[in-house]
Amino acid sequence: MAKNRNDWEQSFQSLQIEGRAFIDGQYCAAADGATFDCTSPVDGRFLAKVASTDAADAELAVQVARRTFESGVWSGLAPAERKRILIAFADLILVHKEELALLETLDMGKPISDSLSIDVPATANAIRWTAEAIDKVYDEVAATPQDQLGLVTREAVGVVAAIVPWNFPMIMASWKFAPALAVGNSFILKPSEKSPLTAIRMAQLALEAGIPKGVFNVLPGYGHTVGKALALHADVDVLAFTGSTAIAKQLMVYAGQSNMKRVWAEAGGKSANVVFADAPDLKAAAEAAAGAIAFNQGEVCTAGSRLLIERSVKDQFMPMLVEALKAWKPGHALDPATTVGAVVDARQLENVLRYVQIGQDQGAALIAGGSRTLEETGGLYIEPAIFDGVNNAMTIAQEEIFGPVLSVITFDTAEEALKIANDSIFGLAAGVWTRDLSKAHTFARGLRAGSVWVNQYDGGDMTAPFGGFKQSGNGRDKSLHAFDKYTELKATWIKL
User: Fold this and answer.
1) Which percentage of the chain shows pLDDT scores above 70?
2) pLDDT at site 1
3) What CATH fold (topology level) applies to the domain 13-267?
């Protein structure tokens, strides 16, 4: 039987929360003993003291990861054996699904129903899918003269560090550690200081699954301390990152200042969701547009934060949109009926409210939401907002808010819509709604975005790569293409 809110509260009472770092197969305090308090945005409750690691901890973790890589204890295993262990890891994720879902919700505020039905299964699936693929990816034999043999092989890079965000802590981490581990690397995960708890717990599950100690390490802490130390470390071979564009740029500078490590960055977004008058189902488009901005409290890099609607159907469409948004109502995140949870922390809430004020100050019309709510809970909740009459030059249409704030922009022609959609420093994702197949293909081809969804929003699965154009970064998570980020190509030319 499904749990109710009281059941989840009772589960919290018996929850053992670990806040220490995980290095060389064991939990440990930060080298200097520093910690920070982890409190829940759901209702302000204290969760744990978490190790605040720094450069000394990064140095130790890198040394451990390098040693284990060069020992071959993991990198030297047959791909099929790494596959077996990673699948066992995925299985353990599901065995502990309620514990991990509760940690995720309490830590970053998302609805418990989402943590349980989306985040945990998606994490296990990412590990399993990647593991299943690794012994089915072949190297190459070059086309050579009869007296030559040319081999093109892939080798693990060595030590991979990843810095992941707070909005989908488990999923974002698994998109990086699964392919990195599958090909034989040793790995150091730096979770966001705003949501470190599931990463810390997964480290123990990785060890239980059979991943050797020292191969999977977790360093909680701040970006300007341990994150910077990893980015500058000369013995980190690859740095994988998901987060803001500003931080991605800084990490690239650090890479250049150190050892020219490869930096794979999936950064910000300001995605356009374009609804043409000939959309096959305007109501479905309106419901998808509401979900595209309200899901996960709008804390989604691909959020459809710019809704472009063709003028001839706008008057028909807008009431549908406002009605659809009513299904996305903030509520206590431990209530399974809740669709919109808490914003991750007070700073983020203040930032979202600041953008709501900017939108009004610049002349946009706030027609729904935009206010803080449920303050009596002690939690950090905001009503999803809709701004009408937005010009694409406005701040709320250009800057990534990372909250449930939708900007509605009107257009008259496909050419105008494409120009508006591409008028952004970002290029992560976009949606297109039309029953005209030729228009859909032509428009999608013209969009400068890494993912384009037609007559839906946020489609795809592990088989499709994920990443952006322009200042949305150069990273590609998911699919077989993810292996390219964590391997070196070697050409071996043999005289016969």
Assistant:
1) 100
2) 78
3) Aldehyde Dehydrogenase; Chain A, domain 1 (3.40.605)
